[in-house]
Amino acid sequence: MAMTLRLTDAQDRALTLLAQAQGTSKQEAATRAIVATAARVLADAEVAELARTVVSGYAATERRLRHGR
Could you tell me how far CA 14 lies from the centroid of its own chain? Predict the structure, then answer.
């Protein structure tokens, strides 16, 4: 799928430096950055959801223990 990416001069320079550091084109550097960020964000969201589930389970257990049940 084609897409136009509009960048400021500073963003374009950052992408150019990233591409040079990776030895890739700016297209490939942008694609890698998107995939890496998505993986990190989704993993963080998964961990946060797991933590909410576990913490709520412990909270219920703690309430029962406080009330002697």
Answer: 20
The single-letter code of the amino acid at 36 is: A
Tell me how far CA of residue 20 lies from CA of 12, 15, 17, in angstroms: 12, 9, 5
Q: What is the reported pLDDT for 63?
A: 79
Contact between residue 30 and residue 15 where contact means Cβ atoms under 8 Å apart: yes
Percentage of the chain exceeding pLDDT 90: 49
Q: Domain map of the chain by residue range?
A: 25-69
Cα–Cα dist 57/69, whole Å: 15
**CB 29: neighbour CB atoms within 10 A?**
20
Section 13-28 average pLDDT: 96
At residue 8, what are phi and psi to the nearest 5 degrees? Answer: -75, 170
